[in-house]
């Protein structure tokens, strides 16, 4: 608004330029969906390097190719990835009970009576109704039970009430059963199994009467690498410090977190479980298991009983839209550009596999993303691929299929070459091309090599590729000097007979980029007065964005008028549209299509007379 003019003087007023710059969205943020060894389940998580993926999702796995695909992606130039971990229904979380009250167990008289034995092993069953069975067994140096007269040298104390205050008396008065007929062991059984003093005779165990229940934050066997340690040093009664450690296969600590001054007594928001739920990246609260038997130190609890479960089915990967699981978890993300579902052994004969890819194509068409489809398992040879492509039912301009699979060194198989789906390497090469040349450049050619791919599962000849190319299958080739390269850029609607305007991958991806960028960059226009000033501002901002792309070489034509147009006026927005609150903007562009066939014509020219 102009200032109120009262006193004589000079008044300065800022006038808006009327230009709202539109910024292009990212072009190669790639989503990977499938099973991983660790990580949050059904939760899209962004990672920006292979090291971060290893830390968050556990790295490579022999049960699924997702980790390898992500590794290939970053190796080939990918910068950002969204990972959705899918787990089967039978996957389980590791759990532990951090003890707050422990009964120390030690067969005192057995110190001398069983001196000839190497160790005493103490075990306890899982609690049932607040009761456990305790067993003390004599074992040799290798841990094998010692037998006397053909029976294990063992004492069993049944039905110990671990919830009772007089648990010690309960153990002392318990019936001794299952004792091997050995005089020394029978004599030991006449004494209490409880001791308040130091642990004796290599028995180093305690029975938890009460404790804080914890479970691994995410399901999987990775949780068995966790342990929790409780410390009551320099804290008030009822409070403690809890340290969570994760160790690697070599026993080295790979992650550690300490939570100070946790309340062990309260169920309120300040309790140990509530604080860990809120702050811990490794664990969450879970049910405590009284009766759990711990080894020294008695304040340290190992996690156990985690399980990866079976490989998730195609239906589990497809997920459920209402629950937001599997593939459908990507609906909670703001943006993704490429989608990879690395699956080895999928078949068109499997209805669940076909349903998965159909759901993926539908999601990509809805979210303006592009799907990279791996070849079906039955496409082992070029002839089988050509035959299968004729009946291939997955046709979409928002998808491309790359053949054949790639052969890459596998660290899980001592570096031997193994066959993997190509989607991760192709997505990385696309990201590299986008960064160097732009999304309008076809991600194919001699400068689009596949890094870290020494071999293809099936070499192709020119006639073989010719058959696949006309059917809309993009090929990977191996050439001298150039190595393994992407040598095709057709969408799944790029078959010659389809005559689709979205025949080529760069043309379709550029259109998706324009649509998403313009949709996001024009949101400011919502609820603005629907009249010529708004239309002019839309023409100016959209035209500025397209002109920037024109200068970068994204379109055909030598002038802006030949390359693009923006129309928003009374011809596109009629009075009836204004009454409905509608603004129509018509945008046209001339894409630079790839030179798929370079034809060189040679002609002999006779030498001029006299030369």
Description:
With 611 residues, the chain is of the alpha+beta class. It has three domains: 30-89 and 311-507, Rossmann fold, CATH 3.40.50.11780; 95-302, no CATH class; 528-611, no CATH class. It is built from 15 helices and 27 strands. The strands form seven sheets. It has an eight-stranded mixed sheet with strand order 2-3-1-18-19-20-24-25, with helices on both faces. Strands 4, 11, 15 and 16 form a four-stranded antiparallel sheet that branches. A hairpin with a 2-residue loop joins strand 7 and strand 8. Helix 1 runs antiparallel to helix 2, helix 2 runs parallel beside helix 10 (423-436) and helix 9 (382-390) packs parallel to helix 11. The chain is globular. The model is unreliable at 106-117 and 164-203 (pLDDT under 50).
Straight-line distance between termini? 83 Å
* Overall domain count: 3
The CATH level-2 architecture of the largest domain is identified as: 3-Layer(aba) Sandwich
Contiguous helical run count: 15
Strand order of the largest sheet: 2-3-1-18-19-20-24-25
How many strands, what sense, and barrel or not for the largest sheet? 8 strands, mixed
Oligomeric state: single chain
Q: Which structural class fits the helix and strand makeup? A: alpha+beta
Uncertain stretches of 5 or more adjacent residues: 106-117, 164-203
What's the overall geometry? Answer: globular
What fraction, in percent, of the residue positions are helical?
10-25%
How large a portion of the residues is in β-strands, by DSSP E? Answer: 15-25%
Secondary structure: number of strands:
27
CATH topology of the largest domain: Rossmann fold
Q: Overall pLDDT, averaged?
A: 84
Q: Tell me, what is the CATH class of the largest domain? A: Alpha Beta
**Rg on CA atoms, Å:** 34 Å
């Amino acid at each position: 608004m102009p200032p109120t003019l009262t006193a004589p003087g000079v008044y300065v007023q800022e006038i808006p330029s009327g230009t709202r710059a539109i910024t292009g969205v990212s072009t190669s943020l790639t989503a990977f969906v499938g099973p991983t060894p660790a990580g949050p389940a059904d939760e899209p998580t962004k990672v920006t390097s292979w090291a971060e993926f290893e830390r968050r999702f556990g790295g490579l796995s022999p049960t699924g190719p997702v980790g390898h695909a992500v590794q290939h992606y970053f190796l080939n130039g990918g910068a950002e990835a969204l990972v959705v971990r899918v787990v089967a229904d039978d996957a389980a979380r590791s759990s532990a009970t951090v003890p707050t009250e422990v009964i120390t167990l030690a067969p005192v008289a057995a110190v001398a009576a069983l001196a000839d034995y190497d160790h005493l092993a103490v075990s306890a069953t899982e609690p049932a109704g607040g009761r456990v069975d305790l067993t003390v067994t004599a074992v040799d140096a290798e841990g094998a039970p010692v037998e006397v007269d053909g029976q294990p040298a063992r004492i069993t104390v049944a039905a110990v009430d671990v919830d009772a205050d007089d648990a010690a008396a309960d153990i002392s008065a318990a019936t001794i059963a299952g004792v091997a007929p050995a005089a020394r062991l029978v004599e030991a059984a006449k004494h209490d199994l409880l001791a308040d003093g130091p642990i004796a005779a290599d028995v180093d165990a305690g029975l938890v009467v009460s404790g804080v229940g914890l479970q691994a934050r995410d399901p999987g066997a990775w949780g068995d690498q966790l342990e929790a340690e409780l410390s009551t040093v320099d804290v008030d009664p009822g409070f403690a410090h809890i340290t969570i450690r994760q160790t690697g296969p070599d026993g080295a600590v790979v992650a550690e977190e300490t939570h100070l001054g946790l309340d062990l007594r309260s169920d309120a928001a300040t309790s140990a479980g509530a604080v860990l739920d809120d702050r811990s990246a490794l664990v969450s609260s879970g049910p405590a298991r009284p009766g759990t038997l711990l080894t020294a130190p008695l304040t340290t609890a190992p996690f156990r009983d985690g399980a990866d479960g079976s490989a998730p089915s195609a239906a589990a990967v497809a997920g459920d839209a209402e629950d937001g699981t599997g593939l459908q978890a990507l609906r909670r993300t703001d943006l993704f550009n490429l989608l990879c579902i690395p699956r080895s052994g999928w078949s068109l004969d499997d209805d669940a596999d076909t349903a998965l890819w159909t759901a993926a194509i539908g999601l990509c068409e809805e979210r303006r993303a592009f799907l990279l489809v791996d070849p079906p398992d039955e496409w082992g040879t070029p002839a089988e691929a050509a035959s299968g492509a004729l009946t291939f039912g997955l046709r979409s301009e928002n998808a491309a299929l790359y053949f054949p699979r790639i052969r890459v060194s596998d660290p899980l198989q001592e570096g031997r070459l193994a066959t993997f789906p190509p989607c991760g390497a192709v997505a990385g090469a696309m990201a590299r091309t986008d960064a160097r040349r732009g999304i309008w450049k076809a991600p194919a050619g001699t400068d689009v090599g596949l890094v870290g791919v020494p071999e293809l599962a099936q070499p192709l000849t020119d006639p073989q590729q010719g058959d696949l190319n006309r059917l809309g299958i993009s090929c990977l080739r191996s050439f001298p000097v150039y190595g393994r390269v992407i040598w095709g850029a057709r969408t799944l609607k790029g078959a010659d007979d389809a005559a689709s305007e979205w025949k080529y991958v760069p043309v379709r991806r550029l259109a998706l980029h324009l649509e998403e960028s313009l949709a996001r960059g024009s949101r400011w226009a919502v609820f603005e007065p629907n009249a010529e000033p708004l239309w002019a501002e839309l023409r100016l901002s959209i035209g500025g964005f397209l002109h920037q792309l024109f200068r970068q070489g994204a379109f055909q034509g030598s002038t802006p008028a030949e390359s693009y147009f923006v129309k928003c006026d009374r011809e596109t927005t009629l009075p009836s549209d204004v009454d409905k609150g509608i603004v129509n903007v018509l945008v046209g562009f001339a894409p630079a299509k790839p030179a798929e066939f370079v034809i060189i014509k040679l002609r002999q020219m006779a030498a001029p007379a006299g030369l």
